[in-house]
Design a protein that fits this description.
Length: 116
């Protein structure tokens, strides 16, 4: 049985920007506190991870890239493509956008800001 993350219920209905220094509910926070641990649990359990994006109030591109591109940079593009799927009836275009961020996640992005 797959592991499911419902972002709007388990994280927030109002995702923020890229880094924790940018404010609350950042892509970096989501990646570290929820996405990567659930991904690792799915892999350990020989199952897939499903990310349900519905129920929120929109996603900044920086949040999506940091979260899902960041996961791909951490564990490998092909592993994410094989083991993670995305659901969005509210905004079906989000799935294509996220898949592009994963496919293009070749290098770590440099941190910017006060705490870089």
């Amino acid at each position: 049985m797959a592991i499911v993350i419902k972002v709007s219920e388990e994280f927030t209905k109002t995702p923020g920007a890229r880094h924790k220094t940018d404010g609350n509910f950042s892509g970096e926070q989501f990646l570290q506190e929820l996405l990567k641990p659930k991904y690792e649990a799915a892999i350990a359990g020989s199952t897939n991870l499903i990310v349900d994006l519905d129920g929120g109030y929109g996603y900044a591109t920086s949040f999506l890239e940091e979260s899902f591109g960041g996961l791909a940079r951490d564990v490998g593009i092909s592993d994410v493509q094989k083991n993670v799927s995305f659901v969005s009836e509210d905004e079906p275009g989000l799935v294509d956008e996220i898949e592009k961020y994963i496919a293009n996640a070749k290098n770590k992005l440099p941190k910017v800001g006060k705490n870089a």
